[in-house]
Design brief:
This protein has 515 residues and is α/β, with parallel strands linked by helices. The chain has helices spanning 28-38, 51-55, 64-80, 97-108, 122-132, 148-157, 220-233, 251-264, 276-285, 295-303, 397-400, 453-461, 488-497, 502-505; strands spanning 43-46, 61-63, 88-91, 112-115, 136-140, 164-168, 177-178, 201-209, 212-219, 241-244, 267-270, 290-294, 315-320, 338-345, 349-354, 379-382, 387-391, 419-427, 434-438, 443-446, 449-452, 468-474, 478-484. The chain has 14 helices and 23 strands. It starts with 27 loop residues before the first helix and ends in a 10-residue tail after the last helix. Residues 1-20, 370-374 and 408-412 have low confidence and may be disordered.
Length: 515
């Protein structure tokens, strides 16, 4: 899989000149500074056209120079709040430029971002904030009809480490500190000693494993390695005009959109999922050549003729949160735009595999996509347990390393040199190709969200006697949740009061005339 994540660097992420320092790992801010120095007046970021409906704010587009000023303004506000370098700052924001600007501002200030999935509610938010010891949370006044400012404030009450609650938008509640990237006048200088170390943590994402919620820290090097796996193996062009409908609230979402944009040095247009007509209008009107969407949705768009109706579109990156379904998926029918499948293995890592010339999915092999691929960004392997393992620069090995079984050094197991994805897999004895045969046992994936089956049973048991909450196969999302009880309306209210996310509460919605 190509190069390591340490090829070339920018020594000072706060400067507007890209000074290459061989042998020094770059940060994500360095990648931004590199393009800023080369093309300051080029388009960098563009909001969704329907942003007024999503957040009540006006849509904006920024050049690299304008984005740099906005990042500096936000970084100064975060640093001015007294957040120490290395602090974790949680973000629950829509797919708008505020997320990208805040992430880059946090990195510039030496902070660690912890993106929170949009559908998480108080129970999940509080658990995640406490798990990582977040010092601050950034949200927005609303996302569509949901008051996310109140969600953030209520979650902060139950997280003892939280010192600041920041928010974008109007009509913020008392106690929430407003953030504004469009500051008038001079932007305060960021008082920060030394440059950011690319080997230090930049991201903490959250994975649901058979053992429960897991916080997964990653450095700038890890994130850039994930981006290189996409840009190199999927052949993303330099200066690409990207359109992403993927929420950047996970490793795969962040890497496929924000990090890929930073590596390509092009532009990133954002689409808050999901409005198919508006997406087509955005791609056509904004002259995007690369589309980033969920894999099943990419196939639907191609089969409906939408992809071929967009003459400027040259490439589609399809993200699969159900990687076991890629091999059996339909052939890619579009003629002008090529598809690259992005296999996502929870928060462990990803693999990019371009479709074959006939549109069929490419085979996977140990080490990479092709039989002779042996890169350092990420590597596939079969474990002794008949599951798929990953290792390489993008993989946060320490987070997934099982604890030793014995207290004695003589009894402790030798740490594995891979992270187990728990996806069942086998090798074709003739070709050597690896087939992914089943998802991790005990886990249910609904879109980009994972649940433990035992947790579904536990929450159902807190409702009326005989209540059931189960997962049913779904072609687009992997699974969907379905619930049944004697009083569905009361069950929904009870789950909402417990602070559970809408995927669980809406499992008990009334269907047709059923009572």
């Amino acid at each position: 899989m190509g190069q390591t994540a340490e090829a070339g660097a920018v020594t000072n992420d706060d400067s507007q000149t890209a000074n290459i320092a061989p042998g020094v790992s770059p940060t994500l801010c360095d990648l931004f500074a590199r393009t800023l120095a080369r093309t300051p007046d080029a388009l960098a970021l563009r909001d969704p056209r329907n942003k007024p409906r999503i957040t009540g704010q006006q849509a904006a587009q920024l050049t690299y120079a304008q984005a740099d000023r906005a990042i500096a303004a936000l970084a100064a506000q975060l640093a001015g709040a007294g957040l120490p370098v290395g602090s974790v700052i949680a973000l629950q924001l829509p797919n708008t430029i505020e997320f990208v600007l805040t992430a880059l501002a946090a990195w510039r200030a030496g902070l660690v971002i912890a993106p929170l999935p949009q559908l998480w509610r108080q129970a999940e938010l509080s658990e995640a904030l406490n798990r990582v010891g977040a010092r601050a949370i950034v949200s927005t006044s609303r996302i569509e009809i949901i008051d996310h400012a109140d969600l953030a404030m209520n979650a902060a009450v139950e997280a003892f480490s939280i010192r600041h609650v920041f928010g974008f938008g109007d009509n913020l509640p008392d106690g929430m500190i407003p953030l504004d990237w469009a500051m008038d006048g001079d932007v305060p200088a960021l008082a920060q000693g030394g440059s950011v170390d690319a080997r230090r943590a930049a991201l903490v994402s959250f994975d649901m494993t058979p053992d429960g919620l897991l916080a997964v820290p990653r450095s700038h090097v890890n994130l850039i390695a994930g981006g290189l796996a996409i840009t190199m193996d999927a052949n993303v062009a330099q200066g690409a005009r990207l359109m992403s409908s993927i929420l950047p609230s996970s490793f795969g979402g962040l890497v496929s959109s924000v990090v890929t944009w930073l590596l390509s040095g092009g532009s990133l247009s954002l689409h808050h999922p999901f409005d198919p007509q508006l997406l087509e209008e955005q791609i056509r009107g904004e002259d995007c050549d690369t589309l980033i969407v969920p894999g099943p949705l990419a196939l639907r768009l191609a089969e409906a003729g939408t992809i071929d109706a967009l003459p400027g579109l040259r490439q589609v990156l399809g993200l699969w949160r159900t990687p076991e379904r890629v091999a059996a998926s339909n052939d890619w029918p579009a003629r002008q735009a090529k598809l690259a499948d992005i296999y996502l293995f929870g928060e462990i890592g990803l693999v990019a595999a371009p479709r074959l010339n006939d549109g069929a999915p490419a085979d996977l092999f140990a080490g990479g996509v092709s039989a002779d691929a042996r890169g350092k960004t990420g590597e596939l392997m079969l474990t002794p347990h008949g599951t798929l393992g990953m290792r390489g620069a993008m993989v946060a090995m320490a987070a997934y390393r099982p604890p030793p079984k014995g207290s004695s050094a003589l009894l402790a197991n030798v740490p594995a040199d891979y992270a187990d994805t728990f996806y069942a897999a086998k090798r074709n004895k003739t070709t050597g190709a690896i087939s992914i045969t089943a998802p991790p046992a005990g886990l249910v994936g609904v879109g980009g969200y994972r649940f433990r089956e035992q947790d579904l049973d536990r929450w159902a048991s807190r409702l009326a006697s005989g209540a059931m909450l189960t997962a049913l196969p779904d072609q687009l999302n992997g699974f969907r949740l379905a619930g049944r009880t004697s009083d569905n309306a009361r069950a929904r209210e009870a789950l909402m009061e417990l602070g559970l996310n809408p995927l669980m509460t809406e499992a008990f919605r009334e269907r047709g005339s059923a009572r």
